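cache lookup: miss for this entity combination. No prior model stored, computing from scratch. Input as submitted by user K.M.:
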Amino acid sequence: MNSAQPGRHAVKTTDTAFDIVESLWELETASLGTLAERHGVAKSTVHRHLATLINRGYVVREGDEYRLSLKFLDIGQFTRTREEAYVLAKPKVRELAEKTDERAQFIVEENGRAVYVHMAAGDHAVTTNTYVGKHAPIHASAAGLAILAKMDEATVENVIERHGLPSYTEYTITTRDALYDELEAVRERGYSVNDQGHIRGLRAVGAPVCDRNDEVIGALSISGPTNRMQGEWFDDKLPALLCGSANELELNIAF
Amino acid sequence: MNSAQPGRHAVKTTDTAFDIVESLWELETASLGTLAERHGVAKSTVHRHLATLINRGYVVREGDEYRLSLKFLDIGQFTRTREEAYVLAKPKVRELAEKTDERAQFIVEENGRAVYVHMAAGDHAVTTNTYVGKHAPIHASAAGLAILAKMDEATVENVIERHGLPSYTEYTITTRDALYDELEAVRERGYSVNDQGHIRGLRAVGAPVCDRNDEVIGALSISGPTNRMQGEWFDDKLPALLCGSANELELNIAF
DNA sequence: GCTAAGCTTTTCGATATGCGGAACGGGTTG
DNA sequence: CAACCCGTTCCGCATATCGAAAAGCTTAGC
C-alpha cells in the first residue's frame, strides 16, 4: 500500500525504519526474526533499527517481542489539538450525537483523504469499525463530500488524480461527472448526503466548517442506519440540526 | 542492562529523521531552513528527509511550511486500543468523573513513566495541562504509586535508576526510603494517595488495576483541588468509589 | 543434566548510501 | 531591477549501513 513514487530523493534507511514501525502497527507485536523475514533484510539490520527506535522511545520491548510505544499516542494527540478549530469541534460532535442518538463526527481532509478527528456515539448509534484517526476515502463519505464542495476545482482534481474514485458499494460515486454534479448539489443544498456510498445500509449527512476566510477546515457529519435515516427526519430535521451546529462552530472559530 | 548507553548501536540516519519529526512536534510548524539550522545539518539533508517523510505520509507540506500529519493520530489511537483492558477502562473513567464531578483518569506504565490513556472531567473538575498521551513522573502521581505498589522490587529499582525521583513541590517523594514506605502503605490501604506531590494544590487517589494473573496493567485515579479533596469525602467515600470501579474493571478484564 | 534449537546480539569488512556544499530556479520585497 | 528569502538539484567523497556468519543466551526436550 506504499503508493509512494520512485522515491528519487528518498532516504532508504528511514524507509526501512518506518517499514518496521508499520509492521509493528499491523502485527501489534512481533519478534526480531519475524520482522527480518517480513522485509527480507538481515536480522542484524532489524536489530540495529529496533535498538534505535527503543532508544528514542518509539518502541518497547517485552521479552523477545516488540511493540509500538504510547509515544505515538502523545504525538497523535498533539496533531489533534494543534488546530484550535479541532478542539472547538469536539463538544459540537458530542452535542450532535446526544441530540440525534446517532453517531456524529468531525472530519478533516489530509493528503486527499478524510480523517476522523472527533467521534461520538448516541445510545442507539450503530457500531462500525471506524475510529478516531482512521483514514477514509473522501468521495465516499458525507463529510468528505462537504469538504470537497468547498474546495476549488484544481484541488479536487488533484485529489481525484491521487486516489481515483474507487467503488465500495453500488451506490459509490465513481465518475468525475457524477462527483461534480453531486458537489454542485451540495453547494446548493448547503449540506451533503451520502447514501450508502461507503458502507451498505449506512446513510449520512455532512456540513462543511470554514474559517473566517471561508477556507474549509473540516466537516461535521451524522450517520446512521437506513431504516432510521429517512423521511422528514433525514430530509429536514437532521440537516437543520447539523447546519445549525456547523454554523455555531464557525462562529466560535471566527470569534 | 544497556539502557544507559545511547547511540551505541543506533542508526544515525534514523536519528536525524526523528530529530526532524520531534522538531515539528515541538515547533508545530517549521520551514526547511529553520529545521536545517536547528540541527546544524545541510538544507539538502533536511530536504531529503522531509521528502521521505512526506512520501510515507508522516509529514504534510503547506506552502513552505511543514507539519506532522494525522497519521500519528491513527497510530496513536491504535496503541491506545490494542489492549482490550485499555478499552474497557474508558467507560469506568467517564463514570468516575460523572459520579465525583472531578477529573478521573486511567494511566499505564511505560518505560518507567506514567502515561495518560483515558481522561474524563466532571463539571467542576479543575483544568490542568494534562492530556491523553501525556507522560508524567510515575512517583509523583497517585496512579503511578498504585502501579509501583504492585510491581516487584527489582522493577521498581529499575524505574528509580532510570528516572530518579525528581522533586516538583515540597511534598514530592524524593528518597528511596520514603517511596518504599509509601508503597507499603498503599498495599495496606489498597489504594494510593498523592498529596500535591506533582502540582501544588492538587490531591488525588489511585487504585491499581490487575489482570487475572495479578499482573498490574494500569491504574485508575481521581484528582481535584485540595479544598474539595478532604475530610470524609477524601478519606472514605472517594476511595470506596474508586476501589469499587477498579474492582469492576478487573472483573470485566478477567471475564 | 545434558544437548539441541530457538532466539538475540556482536563483530567486521565491502560497498552502497547518506552527506555537505555550491549552484539553480522561482517567488516576494524593497 | 537587484537582493533576499524559500525549496530544489547535482555530484564527489567519506562514512555509516548493510549482510553473513559466528558468538551468546534461554528455553525445551529427553
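stored under new cache key. Strands of chain A lie at 59-62, 65-68, 103-110, 113-121, 135-137, 192-195, 202-210, 216-225.
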